[in-house]
Design brief:
48% of the residues lie in helices and 11% in strands. With 527 residues, the chain is an alpha+beta fold. Strands 1, 2, 3, 4, 5, 11 and 12 form a 7-stranded antiparallel sheet that branches. A 3-stranded antiparallel sheet has the order 6-8-7, with no helix packed on it. A hairpin with a 2-residue loop joins strand 13 and strand 14. It is globular, with a radius of gyration of 23 Å.
Amino acid sequence: MSLKLSSQLKEASMRDPRLLLFNHGIEKESLRVTPDARLATTPHPAFFGGKLTHPKITTDFSESQLELITPVHKSPAAALNELDEVHQYVNAGLKNELLWSASMPCVLGADKAIPLAYFGESNLGQLKKAYRSGLGYRYGRGMQTICAVHYNFSFSECFLTWLKAAEKSNETTTEFRNRRYFDLMRNFRRYSWLLTYLFGASPAVDNSFLIGKEHSLYSFDESTTFLPDATSLRTSNLGYQSNIQSESINICYNDLSKYVSSLAKAICTEHPAYKRIGLKVGKHYRQVNTNILQSEAEFYSSVRAKRVPEKGENFLASLQKKGIQYIEVRLLDVNPYLPLGIDEQQIKFLNSFLLFCLLSDSPKHDDQHCLELNENSAATVYRGRRSELLLKNQGKSISLRNWGRSLLKDIKETAEVIDTESSLSHQKSVATQRAKIENPSLTPSGLILDDMKKGKLSFTRFAMNKAIDHRRYFTSTPLTAELIDKYEALTKKSAKDQTIIEDSDTLTFDEYLQNITRKYEPLSEDS
């Protein structure tokens, strides 16, 4: 890590505190479940408004899978307060249902019993349903019910301006921003095993999830399967991993142009297995296309480059032309011990980690480097809490514990840069993680298995107990009149906006889909 640059940044931030005011946004997924811990099959409650257009309450893959969203905030506390607020409103409207507390799903029935999210009959709504149908055919609907917390992050413009000047860069502002975000993302991928170890919270799963799947997990009890040293089965080959993606595409993180072109190529390249599924049967679209990726959203990665496109604008074209707006961290499990699935201490550690990734040397990826980081990630997923697990760092073996100690020492330095004289909260967050390195039983995955063993609880019973605790927490305080008015207004507006979209369609869905497909073709050429 550049100590000189860190020192300069600390001095500059003392003069201008805005430099280290990061932008934060959270997307948290949760299953709606019945009191007997089964997936709710009821429609998305009208109480929540139109899911196609609501800015805070929508669904992910399934009609039963809520996605709760915050707008961008300048502080972790503000983002969490808004997430808490929307959870309060949702819990007040769920009546006999609860929000599942964990990443791995509740008791599941057959795949066909898992309802796809329905977004209405507009072309956009049909596109979303066809995309989810494709995911179901490709990976199974059960896999898509796995939930996560996605963390959206960006630096302030004044920070990037300062950094560009400090590094004496002659690039344009957009070129500099793109290059430095890709520097950050390469390091993120290199060190992502650390986050999996520290925050992985899915070492066990209900047996209903495993029906028809090959696995090497152990039996915990009659209804639960687990691995004794696992950290995050959500990110294992049972979860958000795709053999077809790993074998067929190599998304390049060395620069924006290669990143966009490699994604676009995957969206435009047909795959025989998906061709056999079929595109359209009768009037029903089974998937958006028969290509390796239906869209960039299907790319499973720990971190992604993002920006919000203009209405009608192709996402990758917008990203290529205007550059990165923020990054999306996608490897975080829902922590069942936390009502929101994430807390301020974790976010402050993430911010310190991301700044460390930016300020550290970031070698370009080659095939060997990518192989190494994938192997490190898999080892941590399956055996992360095993004493003295060995990882690979640029070809050399190093224990997870020793590498973790070294990284946390450097991350502590970036935490010191962020902290002010009146608050040492970022450094405290690093100290908490250091304790987990020294004692694996303090990790969320370790705590979960320990509580299950001590209480003789199945995974489902453990997660259901936490769901009940969280519901009690959110409903302990009545909704204020101000909060009710705020969300009722959002409900009405979202329903109206969805109607406007449905009434404004002038193309058939076939024509609409063809237009979308054409927008990717010029981007598929290698740069």
